[in-house]
Amino acid sequence: MLPELELHNLFRDSLKHYLTYDPHLKKLRDLACVYQSPLLKTDNFKTPGIYLLTGGRQTGKTTFLKQYISMILKKKEVVPGAVYFITGEIINNHHQLRSLLQQFLENNSFKKKQAGL
Questions:
Q1: Which pTM does this prediction carry?
Q2: What's 94's DSSP letter?
């Protein structure tokens, strides 16, 4: 995993570490009011797959995803190895994105756990 992505995938070490040190979740702790997207309460993301979240800059996409990752990990709906957060800030082209996804799929730990290995 690229060093730039490790900071966003701290949940792989421990959920507590992620909730404490993730830069976006850390900022939320200092706010008096935190918006909770209605998407956090839907079943829209229950089907396995790759989801793309688009929108303008600084509109809460990353914060929503970090809240969603926290929620599904707390509820143990998914194992940490099945989640991979990639920030678009470091993706230069589709080749790099494909390489990152291929690396994740080849090296993920959840595939081995599901196969009983």
A1: 0.81
A2: H
